[in-house]
Design goal:
Blueprint (H helix, E strand, L loop, with lengths): L1 H22 L6 H29 L5 H22 L15 H29 L4
Helix pairs in contact: 2-3, 3-4
Keywords: Membrane, Transmembrane, Transmembrane helix
Length: 133
């Protein structure tokens, strides 16, 4: 367990180093600060409360965790996909965004839903098989 934590911490520190090195190339940090501030506000004011409320309202029993996890993953996918989803239409250079991003985003969301459904079904089945204590 300690080795795993040590490796995860080392990987996190290395990724933070990469992020800092990329920030050193930015001439004007104003846009970065605005983007990071917007991400914090979006998360704390919208995403986190929505996920917690949906998990509380939609799910009863021990399946609240997987549903919340799926909502967090779906929200993260949506935030990452927003720039290309909000810029539909033809482009001057067709090689800039050559894929069908809305379709691929929906496929990713369907995969998240399918994995969540399979996970919850497996949990329910395992609970039914357990002998009562």
């Amino acid at each position: 367990m300690k080795v795993t934590r040590l490796l995860a911490g080392a990987a996190g520190a290395a990724l933070m180093g990469v992020g800092v090195s990329l920030l050193l190339d930015v001439r004007d940090l104003t846009d970065v600060v605005v983007w990071l501030g917007g991400a914090v506000v979006l998360h704390d004011a919208l995403i986190a409360p929505a996920v917690l409320l949906a998990g509380l309202v939609l799910v009863r029993g021990g399946l609240r965790g997987p549903v919340r996890a799926a909502l967090i993953v779906a929200g993260s996918l949506t935030v990452v996909a927003l720039p290309v989803l909000l810029r539909p239409g033809p482009r001057a250079n067709s090689s800039v965004l050559p894929l069908d991003y809305p379709r691929n985003w929906l496929i990713a969301l369907a995969a998240v839903a399918a994995v969540t459904a399979l996970s919850t079904a497996a949990r329910r089945r395992a609970r039914r098989r357990r002998p009562p204590s």
